[in-house]
Design goal:
Helix 3 packs parallel to helix 5. With 147 residues, this protein is an all-alpha fold. The protein has a domain of 74 residues: Helicase, Ruva Protein, domain 3 (Orthogonal Bundle), CATH 1.10.8. The protein is extended and about 70 Å long. Helix content is 56%, strand content 0%. One of its GO terms (cellular component) is histone pre-mRNA 3'end processing complex. Keywords: RNA-binding. This is Histone RNA hairpin-binding protein.
Length: 147
């Protein structure tokens, strides 16, 4: 095959691939493509899981520290949409991801204080425990080695 013929075949092949590409653009509004969940038992179970997550200390701290107007998708945890139809596996994965993201807002093993969960309060609680006591608690006891 001549060099020019190969070039022509490559160009035709490339152009045919470009024409067949699907870019996933739709003229429908985004929400119109979603199917809504109609099963009352599924909606009730999902709401129960959401309520459980919203009762956690991490979620309470998140509410106090980040006003709704300042929340950014991808940066802050977003509650999954219980009304959208998902497979059970997909829903469980979304809830798990949301709950794990909420743990980043958990106070460090201290009960919530009346003033709230601000960083100043968390740092004060951390400073109240001497480092030596904390390190000593981590060291294995001598009795465990003998057993």
């Amino acid at each position: 095959m001549l060099r020019q013929d190969r070039k022509k075949v490559c160009e035709e092949s490339l152009s045919s691939r470009i024409e067949m590409m699907n870019v996933g653009v739709s003229t429908e509004p985004c929400h119109a493509r979603w199917e809504l969940e109609t099963d009352a038992a599924v909606l009730q179970r999902r709401q129960k899981q959401i309520d459980y997550g919203k009762r956690t200390p991490g979620y309470q701290c998140f509410l106090q520290q980040v006003p709704k107007a300042q929340r950014q998708p991808g940066l802050h945890p977003q509650t999954p949409n219980k009304n959208r139809r998902y497979s059970r596996r997909s829903w469980d994965a979304q809830i798990r991801k949301w709950r794990r993201a909420l743990h980043s807002w958990d106070p460090p093993s201290q009960p919530l204080q009346a003033e709230g969960c601000g960083m100043d309060n968390l740092l004060e609680a951390m400073d109240s425990t001497p480092l030596d006591d904390w390190l000593q608690a981590l060291e294995p006891s001598e009795n465990q080695d003998e057993e």
